[in-house]
């Protein structure tokens, strides 16, 4: 096995996408194994690879890591994206947790019934524009720096950039009232590692489609 981290999940965004984003932002190449059948998933559980019988699974530095939050904390710490001290780390954690709440709505969106989709898009827009994006607009405006914490690129910036693009897919004009976030998005898009990840052919996954939803339901069916 090569020294590259090895990611096991479905061929789609889901809970693995923020991990892909973080590794890509850190300039780390990785390999992926895609689950396509329930048998593959059951075998991982039977072989003891999944501590809590859940994916994502990331094999890195001789460890088989599960639980998205733990995986991302490790990657952020390893690649110096987790602040310089406990206070900065606490801020990063707070921002990441907040963004995760918003991303959870986006994560569940493809699985909502067709007649609820419009209402759910409205909910995402309302939550993004009234609860989450104003926080980051204010933070960036108050300290007048390019990044959210310590004037240094961190996990929080990566997570926010992913969230902005994910919300924009559903609500294209969502940043219209957030000039600081517009500037932030442009700067992030031009960072070499993120720019590379946003190019066609990168490991970034497209928005979930009907096939992805079908595969998720098939692999994880009880």
Helix count, per DSSP? 9
| End-to-end gap | 32 Å
Helical residues, percent = 40-55%
Strand/helix succession: EHEHEEHHHHHHH
Radius of gyration (Å): 18 Å
The overall strand count is: 4
Spans of at least 5 consecutive residues whose pLDDT stays below 50 are: none
Overall pLDDT confidence: 94
Number of domains: 2
Shape, principal axes of CA atoms: globular
What does this structure look like?
The protein has 222 residues and is of the alpha+beta class. The chain folds into two domains: 6-79 and 198-211, 3-Layer(aba) Sandwich (Glutaredoxin); 86-190, Glutathione S-transferase Yfyf (Class Pi), Chain A, domain 2, CATH 1.20.1050. The chain is 55% helix and 7% strand. The protein has helices at residues 17-25, 38-46, 68-78, 86-108, 117-143, 155-170, 179-189, 192-197, 210-219; strands at 6-9, 31-34, 57-60, 63-66. Helix 4 (86-108) packs antiparallel against helix 5 and helix 5 crosses helix 7 (179-189). The two termini are 32 Å apart. This is glutathione transferase. Keywords: Transferase. Residues 3-83 form the GST N-terminal domain.
């Amino acid at each position: 096995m090569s020294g590259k981290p090895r990611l096991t999940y479905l061929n789609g965004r889901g809970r693995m996408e923020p991990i892909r984003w973080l590794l890509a932002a850190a300039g780390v190449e990785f390999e992926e194994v895609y689950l396509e059948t329930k048998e593959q998933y059951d075998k991982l559980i039977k072989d003891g690879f999944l501590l809590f019988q859940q994916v994502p699974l990331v094999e890195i530095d001789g460890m088989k890591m599960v639980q998205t939050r733990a995986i991302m904390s490790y990657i952020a710490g390893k690649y110096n994206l987790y602040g310089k001290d406990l206070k900065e780390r606490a801020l990063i954690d707070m921002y990441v947790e907040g963004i995760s709440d918003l991303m959870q709505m986006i994560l569940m969106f493809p699985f909502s019934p067709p007649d609820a989709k419009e209402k759910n898009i409205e909910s995402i827009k309302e939550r993004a524009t009234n609860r989450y994006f104003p926080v980051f607009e204010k933070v960036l405006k108050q300290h007048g720096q390019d990044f959210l914490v310590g004037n240094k690129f961190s996990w929080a910036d990566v997570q926010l950039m992913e969230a902005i693009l994910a919300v924009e897919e559903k609500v294209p004009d969502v940043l219209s009232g957030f000039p600081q976030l517009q500037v932030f998005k442009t700067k992030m898009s031009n960072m070499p590692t993120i720019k590379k990840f946003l190019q066609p052919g990168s490991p970034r996954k497209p928005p979930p489609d009907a096939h992805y939803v079908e595969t998720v339901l098939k692999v994880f069916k009880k």
